[in-house]
Amino acid sequence: MADEQFYTILTNIGKAKIANAGMLGKSVVLEKIQAGDGGGNYYNPTEDQTALKNKVWEGNINAFDNDENNPNWIIATACIPGSIGGFTVREMGLIDNEGDMIAVCKSPETYKPKVDNGAMKDLYLKFIIEVSNVEKVTLVVDPTAIFLTKKDEEKILSNINKLDTKLDTTKTELTN
């Protein structure tokens, strides 16, 4: 396992859809992330894949962002809840609103326990793809999911501190 390389590739369908979206002035709508166990082993994903080798979970995208240092990277995240498990994740797929796999990922092996195993945890999946025309890709985020990154938390706290400073300034001005 130490020699394994992990990566994400656009599928042929994904490349075609993104290219066509650019020409037609439309966008590819990404909605779901799938997780699979690779059929029990690692394998090297290929561009001609239309499905994971063995899908064990599918869920809505919980959050998305662009990478600060790589503007062509789209980062989609999802969470497998603690109540679901009993499998190992070795592969992931990014699915559009028409059910097509746009990208496939070979991911580090991660066991997802279930309560019957004596442990329970949420498993957060982070899917990164690189596209040259980011504006032609739309991600649909599940509005019922709450997903807060450390970066989001820092931004919120910074905004609260700025508001607190403004309130102190206003209070001082009113007192004078």
Automatic annotation (TrEMBL):
Residues 4-150 form the Phage tail fibre protein N-terminal domain. InterPro entries: Phage_Tail_Fiber_Structural, Phage_tail_fibre_N. Signal peptide: none annotated. It holds the Pfam family Phage_tail_fib. PANTHER family: PROPHAGE SIDE TAIL FIBER PROTEIN HOMOLOG STFQ-RELATED. This is Phage tail protein. It comes from Clostridioides difficile (Peptoclostridium difficile). The lineage of its organism: Bacteria, Bacillati, Bacillota, Clostridia, Peptostreptococcales.
